[in-house]
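Protocol check, entry for the methods section draft. Step 1: assemble the input record (protein sequence plus ligand SMILES). Step 2: submit for complex structure prediction. Step 3: store the structure tokens unaltered in the notebook. Ligand used here: zinc ion. Step 1 record:
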Amino acid sequence: MATSVLSPGLLPIHPQPQPDELLSGWIVAVARANWMKVHSLCNRLGGNQNTVWNRDVDRMAPPAVLAKLSKLTGVPEERIRACTLAHLAEQIDVDHHPNGNATWLLPLGVWHRKRLRHGVQFCPICLGMDERPYVRRSWRLAYYTECEHHKILLMDRCPSCGDAFNYFRGELGVRAKVEAERLNLCVKCGFDLWGSPMERFYWPDWQLTVATRTLHLMNNFGWATLENRTYEPAHELLLVIRQLIRVMSSGNRAGQLYDAVAGAMWPEGCDVLSERGRDYERRSVLERHRLFGMAVWLLMDWPVRFERAFRYSGIQRNSLTRDMKVIPTWYAEQCAKALDW
Ligand SMILES: [Zn+2]
Ligand SMILES: [Zn+2]
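Step 3, stored output:
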């Protein structure tokens, strides 16, 4: 809901951040509500638009930009910071460095004002149904691959031209243009993303469907549940899921775990990985979705499935914990027994 207050220093219209709204998308919304070009607003935020668009502003969350936005909109600074990935990273306690790679956060590949990677996912139905279409913070989270509302796989590119979801570029290069296209239109080819083909993914059983969807829902709770177990902090569970994904997608012998799990889940045949050894965040939406669910599957009926898959795969025990900086006790204890299985 937008409010209008004429006070010194405040913009005339200041739309409030919507649930789970991403900072960069909200900056675009504030500019448009006030009939400003996005770059004019960025000039007021920090000298020039490079301050915002020549870096991943959602991950960096520059305090000076947040403070200025708060002054311009009247929205408290803490509320604005809650729109950033820096804040989300704290919720799930990931190893986060604003300028480097971050576990679970999709990279944008910022090069000047261009985005070389498809680092922002979207749900076409959400974009089509919103009164004011907006970008969700969760859409930058690598394991958030299915819309929690519409149960379809997210997309990370325009189905017509293949371009990334560059919601902020609608007016760039057009000096006189203030009202950019709505967020649901591809800025490169004009395709209405609302009309994208929608894809559902079906897990082999409802228990796994419920388990993965529950974890998607809990992306900023600070704790997580899987079956009847609770993990607090959620980071403990995510660390192990991450490790199992790393092992399954490994380019060496440890990667046999993928075949063992996939064979058990889809005995009639399953998809192979596009490339072994590639980072999780650089994989397609579909592969990220599948790998995350496979790791969750391994942790269900704990530890029976885990033990069986380990034995069947023939991988070495030390690969289960290799390269983990922190190993949750419950996982370490189970791996220590692996020789006895
Ligand atoms: Zn949706
Ligand atoms: Zn397009």
